[in-house]
């Protein structure tokens, strides 16, 4: 299983900043932020499955445009894996004919370009021996994290989350975990904002990682533009013993 980072920024503001999206092999996306816009039409057309952590714009920005761009090039619908709550949000506020057409009924209800598939925490999806498991997360809208499991090794992506004991309980049950990608959106000076928006800052990240019972490689994602250097310096000061590194665009993990 090849995992490639298409975007890992908490915002935009430069050619190197792309919001959250992760490609698995050449046919699966985890989230669909602005990093997806760097893919070619041919690459977009190969994507069959999109797993969304939640409905916030930085994680879904390219989804409506991708469906529109390649729907007529495909012979089956693009499958969007979401919790029922997230599907409800997307249908009401994105694919509603006011913001964007409802591609779950275009060109017809019988043969649409987009299909929603419900998922639930703990219920795994198996795609050609690749196991994808939604895990608990704690955010301002319904959200999940994901475990990507090749059988040989697992990667966990936290998505957007504030403190979440249930996430760490689930992570600690993974016996082949070797990579953890965890968000830290704000610097410590904005801890109150992190708490209110259910994100993490370095001091909160330390509190969360104290629940971790294994020693995977740890990568930091969702850093806010303008605070990247400060937040990473605070991470080094707060949790340097965990040896975290900043996630990078186009970084590749082999599971």
Termini separation: 5 Å
CATH architecture term = 4-Layer Sandwich
| Helicity, as a percent range | 10-25%
Low-pLDDT parts are: none
Order of strands across the main sheet: 6-5-4-3-2-1-14
Topology overview:
Layout (H helix, E strand, L loop, with lengths): L1 E6 L13 E4 L3 E3 L10 H6 L2 E3 L5 H4 L2 H8 L7 E5 L1 H10 L20 E5 L6 E3 L2 E7 L7 E6 L4 E4 L7 H7 L5 E7 L7 H7 L4 H8 L7 E5 L6 H12 L5 E2 L5 E3 L1
Parallel strand pairs: 3-4, 4-5, 5-6, 10-11, 11-12, 12-13
Antiparallel strand pairs: 1-2, 1-14, 2-3, 7-8, 8-9, 9-10
Helix pairs in contact: 7-8
Describe this structure in words.
The protein is an alpha/beta fold. It has one domain (2-247): 4-Layer Sandwich (Metallo-beta-lactamase, Chain A). The chain has helices at 41-46, 57-60, 63-70, 84-93, 165-171, 191-197, 202-209, 228-239; strands at residues 2-7, 21-24, 28-30, 49-51, 78-82, 114-118, 125-127, 130-136, 144-149, 154-157, 177-183, 217-221, 245-246, 252-254. β10, α5 and β11 (177-183) form a beta-alpha-beta unit. α7 packs parallel to α8. The radius of gyration is 18 Å and the shape is globular.
């Amino acid at each position: 299983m090849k995992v490639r980072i298409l975007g890992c920024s908490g915002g935009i503001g430069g050619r190197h900043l792309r919001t959250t999206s992760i490609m698995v092999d050449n046919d699966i996306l985890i989230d669909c932020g602005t990093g997806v816009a760097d893919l070619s039409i041919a690459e977009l057309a190969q994507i069959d499955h999109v797993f969304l952590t939640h409905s916030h714009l930085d994680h879904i920005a390219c989804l409506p445009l991708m469906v529109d761009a390649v729907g007529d090039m495909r012979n089956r619908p693009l499958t969007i894996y979401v919790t029922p709550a997230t599907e409800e949000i997307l249908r009401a506020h994105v694919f509603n004919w006011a913001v964007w057409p409802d591609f779950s009924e275009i060109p017809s209800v019988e043969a649409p370009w987009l299909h929603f598939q419900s998922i639930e925490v703990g219920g795994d999806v198996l795609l050609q021996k690749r196991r994808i498991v939604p895990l608990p997360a704690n955010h301002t809208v319904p959200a999940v994290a994901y475990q990507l499991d090749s059988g040989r090794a697992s990667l966990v992506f936290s998505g957007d989350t504030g403190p979440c004991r249930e996430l760490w309980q689930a992570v600690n049950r993974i016996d082949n975990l070797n990579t953890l990608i965890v968000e830290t959106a704000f610097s410590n000076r904005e801890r109150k904002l992190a708490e209110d928006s259910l994100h993490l800052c370095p001091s909160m990240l330390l509190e969360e990682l104290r629940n971790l019972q294994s020693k995977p490689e740890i990568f930091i994602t969702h850093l806010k533009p303008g605070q990247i250097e400060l937040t990473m310096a605070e991470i080094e000061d707060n949790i340097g013993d965990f040896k975290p590194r900043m996630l990078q665009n186009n970084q590749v993990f082999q599971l």
